[in-house]
């Protein structure tokens, strides 16, 4: 699962294995896993390669249509990304915030601080990339971001960074926490 492109996020979301049935009124446990295979990656990149040969035909597609497709793909892939979820909760009253695992384990002020630092870094990278004279520094600034991440060890505890900067999807962390909770309940009763 590579989050470098919209294509990869959308591709992995399309390969999710969902439960076949659901009970009305009972919240679904989420997806069961990801169907791993290599065929669609091969087909995706073959069609991208073939599209170079089809340029005369593709030039008849209006640009607003293409922009709309890419906008839809980009916006639909944001769902489930912790960074985007943390940005959204910055603008929500506490009582309307979803029950995210990171909100259970890290104080809200610390979550907002981490999100603001990430937004600042993203803004700096965007500004550097946007100007012709500074865009040459973009690869160097990516290396600087490694130093910024290391400097976060001075601001946040190791536990907070593990929770806020984890690559594990929210649904997987929730399932593990629920399993541990059920095990604790079972051991306490016996």
From TrEMBL:
Highest taxon of source: Eukaryota
UniProt cross-references to InterPro entries, sorted A to Z: HCO3_transpt-like_TM_dom (IPR011531), HCO3_transpt_euk (IPR003020)
Subcellular location(s) of the protein: Membrane
Entry keyword annotation includes Membrane: yes
One annotated GO biological process: monoatomic anion transport
A Pfam entry, by short name: HCO3_cotransp
Domain Bicarbonate transporter-like transmembrane: 1-169
Keywords: Membrane, Transmembrane, Transmembrane helix
Membrane topology note: Multi-pass membrane protein
Gene Ontology terms: cellular component: plasma membrane
Main location: membrane
Gene Ontology MF term list: sodium:bicarbonate symporter activity; solute:inorganic anion antiporter activity
Protein name: Bicarbonate transporter-like transmembrane domain-containing protein
